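hey team, just a heads up i'm posting the complex here instead of the shared drive bc the drive is being weird again. everything in one block, sequence lines first with there labels, then the predicted structure for the whole assembly after. its three chains so it's a bit long, scroll down
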Amino acid sequence: MKRNEIIVAVIMIVAGLIAPWVLPSVWTTIVSIFCYYAILTIGWNIIFGYTGLFSYGHVAFPAIGGYTSALLAEHIGLPPLLGLLAGGLAAGLMGVLIGLLILRVRGFYLCLVTWAFAEVVNVVIKAEHEITGGTGGFLAPSYVSGPNAELVGYFIGLGLMTLAFVVSAILYHSRWGLYLFAVRDDIDAAESMGVKTRFWKVFGFTAGCAWAGVAGAFYAHYFNLVDPSIGGLDEMGKVCLIVIIGGLGTVYGPILGSFFVVIVAELLRGWMGGYSLLIFATIMILAVRFVRGGFMEIIQVVSPHLKNKYLALIGK
Amino acid sequence: MLLELIIRGITIGLVYALMGVGLALLNGVMRIINFAHGEFYMIGGYMAYYSMAVAGLPFYLAVPSAIAITFILGAVVEKLLLSPIHTQEIEKPMDYALIMTFALLLFFRQLAIKIFGPFRHKPPDYIPFDVHILGVKITGNEMLAGIVSLLLVLGLALFIKKSWRGRGWRATTLSRKGAKINGVDIGKESWISCGVACALAGAAGALVAPIFTLSPTIGGSPLVKSYEVMAIGGLGSIAGALVAGLMLGVTETLGAFYISSAYKDAIGFLMMAFFLLFRPQGLFGQK
Amino acid sequence: MLNIENLNVFYDGLQALYSLTLEIQEEEFVCILGPNGAGKSTLLQTIAGMLVPGQGTITFKNRPIHGLAAHKVASLGLALVPEEGWLFGQMSVQENLLMGAYPKTARSTIKRQMDFVFDLFPILEERKKQQEETLSGGERQMLAVGRGLMSNPEMLMLDEPSLGLAPLVVKDILSALVRINQEEKTTIVLTEQNIFHALKISQRGYLLENGKIAMQGDSKVLLGNEHIKKNYLGI
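-- predicted structure starts here --
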C-alpha cells in the first residue's frame, strides 16, 4: 500500500466513526448504503478494472451472498457475522464455476453470458418463492438485537468497506495484481511470458465475486431483508456507472464513484422532489457527452494543478 | 393445444425477431451495446396509442407514425449523443456507449413516467375480431403484429442484401477502414442506421401495444429478448435473428405451458448463454 | 496532379513525416521506397484522408484535400489499396468489388471496370461468388487492387502490394500495375520495400528514410545509385 492509500483508509475510518454522532441518524443508513456499493464495486473493479473481464452479471453475486446468509440464519441459525463469510464463500464458489465457464469467451460475448447468468439467478429467486420468498424478499436477522442494531450494522459496513479497500489496494501493488493487469492489457504477451492467464482470469473473477457476496450478505442483515431487486439490471447499470465515474481500474475509483452516486445523489434528492431520477439521468447524459473524461476533465477545467494532484492520488 | 401454442409462439417470435434485427444492425454498424433499445419499443407503443386515442388516426396510420417518430428520435439521439464515438477518437467507445445508453434508458423511462403517467394504457384494438388459422383462434391484433413484423424483417434483410446503402452498412460492419476508403460516410450511415434500428423497435412496440398494454417500464423485457435473439442468431446476422426469434418465441411459449411459467424468462437466457459459450457464431454462422 | 508541400504528420504522438514535399504528374508511375517504418504507409494514408496532417498542404487536381475525410477523398478519383487490404471478409468477391464503386460518381462505369478487373485477374472471375475469407493471400491482394480500380480512379495508390506473397504472384500483380498505367492511363503511386522490382517498373522514385525524402529521381538513375545499391539492393 502507498502512503496516500493508508491516509485515505485512516480518514475513512475516522470520519466513519465520528459520523453517527454529528450527522442526523438518517445518514447512518445512507452511509451504510454507500458502504454496500463501495464493497460491491470494489469487487467489480477487480473483475473489470484489474482483470479486464467485462462482467455484466456482477449483481447476481450479492443476491447469492445475501440469500445464502439469510437462508442459513433462518434454517440453521447461523450468526450474521459468520453469514458474511458464508455469503462471500458461496458467491466465490459460484464465481469459480462461472469464471471457468467464461474462459471460452471474450469481450462482448462475455458481457452477454454473465448478464444471462444474472438474469437466470434472478428468475430462480423469483420462481422458487417457497424457499426464497419470491419478489417480496426474505427476512434476515440483524447483527445484534436491540436498539443499537442499526449502529452496529453501520460499523460492520464501515469495517468491511475499509477492509475491501485495503485488500484491493494491496492487490493493486502486489505481484498478483501485476498478473491481473498483464491478463487485461495483453493476454497473449502475458501467456508467452509464462503467466498462467487462465488461472489469473478465474482468480480475478472469483475475488471480485466473493466481495460482491460479502456485500450482499452485509446488505441483507443491515436491512433485515434481501429481495430480488438487488440483482436487477438497473443495479448493474449503477455498478458500471460508479466505477467508470470514479475511475476504472484505480484503487479509489469505487469509493469516489460510490460517494458521488450515493451520497451526492442523496444530498440533491431533497430539493429535486419527484424529478430526482430524471435530473440524475439528464446530468449523467450531459456529463458523459460533454465532459467525457468524467471528473478528471471537470477537475482539469477548474484547475490544471488540481488535476495532477488527482492523478497522483489515483495512482496513474 | 400444441398447435395453438406453436402459433402463438411464432407470432411473438416474429416480434422478438423484429427487435433483434434492429439491435443486430446497430451492433454491426456502430459496434456498441445499446441498453436503450427497449425504450424505443416503449415510445413506439405510446406514440401509436396517442396517435389513435388523441389524434384519432386509424391504426394503419398510427403505426407508421410511431415508426416515423422513433426513427427521428433514434437519429437525433445518435447525432447528439452517440456520434462522438466515431467523430472523436474516444479511448473506450464501449464504456462510453454503455453509460450513455444506460443513462438514456433511465432518462426515457423517467420522462415517460412524468409525461405518460405511471398507469397502464391500451390503444383500441387494431383489428377487433379474431381469426382462425389451422383451426386455432388468435386475435386480429396478434395476426397483424406477426405479419407486419415478418414483412419488416424481410424488408430489412432485402435492403441490406441488395441496396448500395445496405451493402455499405455490411461493409462497415466487416471493416470500418475499408468502408471509409471506399467512400462510406460512417457518420451519416451511423445516424441513419441508428434511426432505422430504433424505428424497428418502435414498430414492434406499436404493433403489440393493444396486446400487452403500455406502461413506462415495459422496455425491459423486449431489451432482454432482443439481446437473446441477437446472440442466438449470431451477431449481425439478419436471417439468424429471424430464425432465432421464432425459436425463442416457440420454445418460451411451450416451456411456459409444459414446464413452468415462472421459469419462462430463464429459457431465453439459457439458450443465449449456451449459444455464446458453445456456438458463438450463432445459428448459421461458420467458424 | 498531386502536389504535397511541407507535410508534417504525427502518428501516436510521434512525428512520422517531416516537411515532405513531392509532386506527381498525370499518368506517371511513381514508386516510394524505403525501409520499414520510414513513413510510406503514413504518407499514403494521409493522402487518402485516413490521417490528418499536422501541417502542410496536399492538393489533388488543384484542389486542397488535406484534412478532407476519407470518404470524400474516395469520390474524387483517388483510390487507396491499403497494406492490410481492409477487405470485407464475409462478402463475396463480387460484392467486395462493388464496394469499390460505392461513391455515386463511380456507379455508372461499374460494368466496364469489373470487366477490366476480371481481365487483369481472371482468377477473381472464377471466384466471383466465393467469400473473401476463403481466398488465398495472393487472391486477396488481387481483390484489393481490383476493388481500388472499381471506382475508375485517376490515381491509384498501392501500399506494399507484394508484401508476403510468392514471387510468381508478385510478378502477376506488378505486371497488372504496368497494364493499368499504360492501358487506363491511371497515375500509379506504389510503395515498396522490394526496391529492385519497384524501380524496374516505375518511371520515377522517391526514397523515404526516417520520415524524410532522402533521395529522388528517375528510376533508372536510382537503380544505379551507390547509396541505394549498397543499403537496399545488397550489391
